[in-house]
Design goal:
The protein is an alpha+beta fold. It has ten helices and seven strands. It binds adenosine-5'-diphosphate.
Length: 361
């Protein structure tokens, strides 16, 4: 067998090789123990045989090896001494010491094996738990992100039906509702595709673009939600021609999450006071976007936990929105944080790096 093929032995082959070597060593010990008449407990060396067997074999094999070693010790004793009867001389003591050593070594090896098995079991459980957590987070992300377009589809279909059910059906309005449904359905499928790509660690689909048009487009997408929450939007976009290199689908998701959170945060205040401010600007090497509301703000204790998966203070919340926002923004080289406004309400801000003017588009 070449050395290359020897290194490629399968585990079964390796175990039988160890077993063969252990048997060879046991035979040598037996011969030395029987033939020589030294005042030493040679059979204690069977401990080495047991350690060799314990290394890769099963518990059953270890017990068989222990029985074989004990048997060989007794056989060597009988051959050297002739019989079991007679005075308890030095040979007896050495035989008993050897048997005790074999028993102790077997017990210790069995305990070691059990500990290793428990460790392997715990590792397998941990790996399983990690997979389940990852799958759970992925499922929660999909559920969270797809929920908004689905709710929009439901609202637009009710609106469409109402237009058609009028004594004189408003076909243009119904057509617009259908167009919005198609847009939302397309957005839901884009979101699922992006989340799947993220889970597969696929490269994000980056484009070099101006952020302000993307913000306007997002506002148009959730215009229905703003009306439903009776929220006025005060928009000041000043990033102008500044370009960022981002995945537009993902950044749109961030904007939608922040805008819907702002609407929900203002649900408790009078409709006429519900105003959200959406600003964009350029600051050094960054394009900055801020979404501010005049809700109750964020409790100081909640501030450090806000972006942690599954953190929520809302009864029907999933606590995934801001965690997804942070993953997306950080994956595009940006940062995101939350603060409270002195006059009341919360501000969620994210910065994205300006696209490097020197690099190709
Ligand atoms: P969810 O909306 O499902 O609770 P999020 O991750 O979007 O999950 O938000 C986590 C928590 O952050 C919310 O439960 C809420 O307590 C807080 N939060 C987010 N946005 C705002 C906001 N604009 N004003 C006040 N609290 C907010």
């Amino acid at each position: 067998m070449s050395s290359l093929s020897a290194t490629r032995l399968n585990p079964l082959g390796r175990h039988s090789l160890w077993g063969f070597h252990a048997l060879l060593v046991a035979c040598c010990i037996f011969v030395v123990d029987t033939v020589t008449h030294l005042d030493a407990a040679i059979a204690v060396l069977y401990v080495a045989v047991l350690l060799m067997v314990a290394k890769g074999s099963s518990t059953k094999a270890l017990l068989w090896a222990a029985a074989l070693c004990a048997g060989l010790t007794l056989a060597a004793f009988l051959i050297g001494h002739g019989h079991f009867a007679g005075n308890f001389d030095g040979r007896w003591a050495r035989c008993l010491i050897s048997l005790a050593a074999i028993a102790i070594a077997t017990l210790l090896a069995l305990r070691g094996k059990r500990a290793t098995e428990a460790l392997l079991g715990a590792q397998a459980q941990l790996a399983h738990a990690t997979r389940v957590t990852t799958l759970g987070e992925l499922a929660a992300s999909i559920a969270h992100e797809v929920n908004q377009p689905l709710a929009a589809i439901a609202n637009n279909s009710s609106a469409g039906l109402r237009w058609l059910d009028r004594p004189e059906p408003e076909l243009d309005e119904a057509r617009e509702s259908l167009q919005r449904i198609a847009q939302d359905a397309h957005r839901a499928s884009e979101v699922v595709a992006r989340i799947r790509a993220m889970a597969r660690k696929g490269a994000p689909a980056r484009q070099r673009l101006c952020l302000d048009p993307l913000i306007n487009e997002t506002l148009a997408l959730i215009a229905g939600e703003l009306t439903r929450y009776r929220v006025r939007a005060c928009v000041q976009l000043q990033a102008n021609e500044a370009r960022v290199e981002i995945d537009p689908v993902q950044v749109r998701q961030v904007l939608i999450n922040l805008l819907i959170n702002a609407c929900q945060a203002m649900a408790e205040i009078a409709p006429r006071e519900r105003e959200l401010c959406l600003n964009s600007s350029v600051l050094g090497q960054w394009v900055c976007v801020t979404v501010c509301d005049c809700g109750s703000g964020i409790a100081p204790a909640a501030l450090p936990l806000l972006f942690t998966p599954f953190f929520t203070t809302r009864e029907d919340g999933m606590g995934m929105g801001l965690s997804i926002c942070r993953s997306i923004i950080e994956a595009q080289g940006g940062r995101i944080w939350a603060s409270n406004r002195p006059e009341g309400g919360a501000c969620l801000t994210f910065w994205l790096p300006l696209a490097n003017a020197g690099s190709p588009a």
